[in-house]
# Entry
Amino acid sequence: VAVVIDDYERASVALATTSAVFNQQVIQLMPTPMAARDPAMTAKLLEKRKTLGASTDPVIADLISRVTSGAALDNLNYLTGISSDIKSRNSIHPDGLKAAAWLKTQFDRFGFTTELEPFGTAGYNPNVIATLPGTSEPETIVVIGAHYDSRGRASLSATDDAPGANDDGSGTSVLLQLARLISESGVSFKY
# Structure
């Protein structure tokens, strides 16, 4: 499994929803955006996901049962500057480097091999690529992605605040949640 947090310009290659791939099944973990501001709604959505049919793979069902709104909100708060000193994740803002370094640390902590890949010309913040090789077909790559950069009102401003909770802090937060779940559960993947 490769988790790619892609730069804004390449985000079109990233998946729109975060899914877990297991034995060639694709299971959507969160069919609707996480209601980070309404914990009761989040709990209701998660409870609904727990009532999946009997045909659901028990490993996937276990992963879904471990999803927590608190962890996702903690990640989002950090990325948007609520609990950190990140003022902007614009791809040319210096704070984007802080976000990239923090993301690399998180994925490393969850057992992924993580690298910061230079993007474009000088001045752009790097891509964060976290890789977890498959057990039987490691040469086959599954990409689960989001972009961690954001845009403010002046999209090319290196100084405007661009906290980006929904551009794409929420998607990046879900990827971190998925990495945590994989790490804590010890689940492995064919690819």
Summary: The beta strands are 2-5, 19-22, 25-28, 113-117, 127-131, 143-146. Residues 165-185 form the longest helix (21 residues). Helices lie at 39-50, 58-65, 69-79, 95-109, 165-185. The mean pLDDT is 76.
